[in-house]
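Q: Give me the 3D complex with nicotinamide-adenine-dinucleotide.
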Amino acid sequence: MAAKCWHQPKQLFDGFQISAFLFSEVLIKMNSVAICATDVIYWQFGKLADYVIKKPMVLGHEGSGVIQKVGCGVTNVKTGDKVAIEPGVPRDTDDYVKAGRYNLSPTIYFCSSPPDDGLMCRFFVHKADYVYKLPDCVSLEEAALAEPLSVGIHACRRGRVKLGCKVFICGAGPIGLCCLLIAKAMGASQILMCDFSCERLEKAKQMGASATIKVEKCPTCPIEFAQKVKTALGCSGAEVTLECTGAEFCVQAGIYATRSGGTVVLVGIGPASVNIPVSNAALRELDIRGVLRYTNTWPMALAMMSTKKVDVKPMITHRFPLEQATEGFETSKRGTGIKVIMQSKRDPQEQQLALV
Ligand SMILES: NC(=O)c1ccc[n+]([C@@H]2O[C@H](COP(=O)([O-])OP(=O)(O)OC[C@H]3O[C@@H](n4cnc5c(N)ncnc54)[C@H](O)[C@@H]3O)[C@@H](O)[C@H]2O)c1
Ligand SMILES: [Zn+2]
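A: Here is the predicted complex, encoded as structure tokens.
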């Protein structure tokens, strides 16, 4: 029997040789990689939930670059194309992949999820099917944010957000803001957001939230907080709640703030186990749905950006060259701004183009 062929993206640092470049792969010169909250957690603690870093690992899964070389079987992109990179590539054609839910495949390669290396490097080899040529008007920086935008698309699809919906989003970090952009584009009539941070709530307003509520550092009662949400929405509760903090208080308040028959989408990852008002949810027929990243979202994310239905640019608040990774990570850790972009070394002409 032939040996199993595992797709294994490879990071290539300056001067390294490409050892095994397959016919269905592309070599990408990396351009922009946005730092994600999970990258900061791995950098700080070396683990996230059940994922533990056991050997040095390259971080970064929100990236874009320029095709340097293509395998002989590649037809979707060519040398010189600017591309957005989908960081999760299934290794097996298992039942999940066959059902179109490749995000759930237990053997998926996912950049910067241990032990799989990520995108913060000069060159990266990836499966061609998981890179997407950028429309002319989408910059490489914006393309890096197709990843968190994809989480927003998947969350709104899971929540069945539709025309006229009233939506409540907990957390105005990058993921909450991406959910906001997508819920708005899907036709939500009102979107209420909450967070601890006044700065982030201000950003949410600039990006289209109808209203915001600040959460106090030690909030007492999720039922009282949910009542504020209902009053602000002017109805008996949100039809869809997108929980993007992982905090126990927000999961509880999100359930109480959702109207009977509505949907609560758990996007945020917090403690492994939290208390939830389960009979309240059950007896009001709430649908509580999980989210694991995304499937089949990049074409939609790029189309939404190129047609200006969503604008991710306000989320880009800091840029650092890859050589200053520590400064970039410190900035992200402080929670200053929203998205920090690490830029790979490039010539001045490319630099100009990336900033257009
Ligand atoms: N399920 C998935 O596939 C998936 C994918 C990406 C991210 N995530 C998770 O989504 C969450 C959000 O990601 P992010 O990048 O926006 O993170 P982030 O840490 O930048 O943002 C989280 C926001 O929530 C706010 N917050 C935290 N606790 C709160 C509370 N009790 N009340 C009100 N606001 C509170 C913070 O102030 C912050 O603005 C994280 O938990 C992340 O791990 C999940
Ligand atoms: Zn991320």
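A quick observation: The mean pLDDT is 92.
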